[in-house]
Amino acid sequence: MATKGVFRIECPHCGESFDADFWTVVRGDRDHAVKELILSGEFDLLICPHCEDMIQHEEPFLYIDPPKDLLAFVMPESYEPEKDKWIARMNADYEPVRASLFAGQGITSAPRYLFGLGQLSAILESDRDREEETDVMEFMAREEGLKLLPVNPVVARELDLPFTLPMPAGLFSRAAGLKAAEGLFAKNDALPRLKNLIEALKTGKDDTIPFVKI
Ligand SMILES: [Zn+2]
């Protein structure tokens, strides 16, 4: 699904031009090696075939991760001063393929418009920390015989919650979820996002949990 485009680049070191491949669409949930390049900062590095020097060169691309409900237009940092113009252009460029790219992908959140890879890697790093804490919590929850319900990823990012919510088997209520989360936190208080989840559950007005995807 990851898609590449070819762009002509002029090497800033030797002045020669060459054609280079760039990702135009990256599927975060499938292109694991490409996602690692983004996280390691190597995504936008090229080697000039003439002088073999390293060049950093950003081109706009689309980052999609449907299970994480994330869709981001990632543009070079240098575009930021004219962000309105570029956002309009990105939207126009992707409009013809929007249906085929997004249909049935389960992305419900609004697109994010990011300038510079740093803004994307910050989201991905934060998600990775969240995944690690979620894994620890899930391990404990399974030992307690609890089941795990998916938290809406957009709300998980917004409120800094785990990606899942523990719930006793056969139950679904805010009170039961709160009790399960508090029970896990009593056993391991080194889980800040679980604490945020407890706070979020406490603020609920009735027995529903609006941020759990069912
Ligand atoms: Zn060169």
- Counting copies of identical and different chains, the oligomeric state is single chain
The total domain count is 2
Provide the β-strand percentage band: 15-25%
Q: What's the pLDDT, averaged over the residues?
A: 92
Ligands: zinc ion
Largest sheet, strands/sense/barrel: 5 strands, mixed
- Helical percent range? 40-55%
Low-confidence stretches: none
Order of helices and strands: EEHEEEEHEHEHEHH
**Sheet/helix structural class:** alpha/beta
Alpha-carbon distance between the two ends = 27 Å
Tally of extended strands? 9
- Overall 3D geometry? elongated
Count helical runs: 6
* Cα gyration radius (Å): 21 Å
What is the strand arrangement across the widest sheet? Answer: 1-2-5-6-7
Task: Summarize the entry for a quick read.
With 214 residues, this protein is of the alpha/beta class. It has six helices and nine strands, in the order ββαββββαβαβαβαα.
